[in-house]
Specification:
Distance between the termini: 24 Å
Strand order of the largest sheet: 1-2
Shape: globular
Structural class: mainly alpha
Helix content: 55-70%
Number of strands: 4
Number of domains: 2
Radius of gyration: 19 Å
Largest sheet: 2 strands, antiparallel
Number of helices: 9
Strand content: 5-15%
Length: 205
């Protein structure tokens, strides 16, 4: 089972139960402690990441994991601040990617990314991850009626902004390397290693 698949199963499981424990989920999904712990940690709600969708209750032993919606005002602010704040990083990534000869290496006829190319795409992958997470959260909140009626139109606008930015990044990457099919394939193979429950977003577009 891939990590995106496990991530999706964890989320779907937590939507159906009041709470679950680490051992329950490990047994249910037949996954390793490491994979389960990493996914829970990455998606947990904390003071520094109020958008994490997994709430960890450490008052009980074993710890209990559940889902807890965030106030939509917080999501709205995160969407706008994040999309505005990534322009500088993306511009630098695009500039570096345009120098294709320094990003790829050819071994035995196979084009692959070198360390510099991997570092750049890691940054872009994490940005796409975050956009997917924001888009997914908006859709999830709408599905459970946690968005105030007076903010529905705002939520729709926020979701559209996420989709547009995601598509804009993908198109930019395609345009940068569209002359070399092997280079495009190398990027495609690497780009989505960080995907956040990707099936949720692709079902929306």
């Amino acid at each position: 089972m891939t990590k995106p698949e496990l991530e999706k199963k964890i989320f779907l499981h937590l939507t159906k139960v009041k709470f679950s424990t680490h051992d329950e989920m490990k047994k249910l999904f037949k996954c390793t402690d490491k994979d389960l712990t990493n996914i829970i940690s990455k998606n947990s709600k904390t003071a520094s990441d109020p958008l994490g969708f997994i709430l960890v209750n450490k008052d009980n032993t074993p710890h209990r994991y559940s889902l807890e919606p965030t106030n939509y005002d917080t999501i709205h602010m995160q969407v706008n601040n994040y999309l505005k704040g990534i322009n500088g990083i993306l511009t630098l990534c695009y500039r570096n990617l345009s120098v294709q000869s320094t990003l790829f290496e050819n071994n035995s006829g196979t084009t692959s990314l070198n360390k510099k190319g991997i570092d750049i795409l890691d940054n872009i992958s994490l940005i796409l991850d975050r956009i997917q997470q924001l888009s997914f959260l908006i859709t999830y909140y709408k599905s459970i009626n946690k968005i105030p009626k007076n903010m529905i139109s705002l939520a729709n606008e926020d979701h559209t902004k996420c989709i547009n930015m995601y598509c804009k990044i993908i198109k930019k990457l395609q345009n940068i390397v569209n002359k070399e099919k092997s280079q495009q394939q190398a990027i495609d193979l690497y780009l989505f290693k960080h995907q956040f429950v990707v099936n949720h977003l692709t079902s929306i577009i």
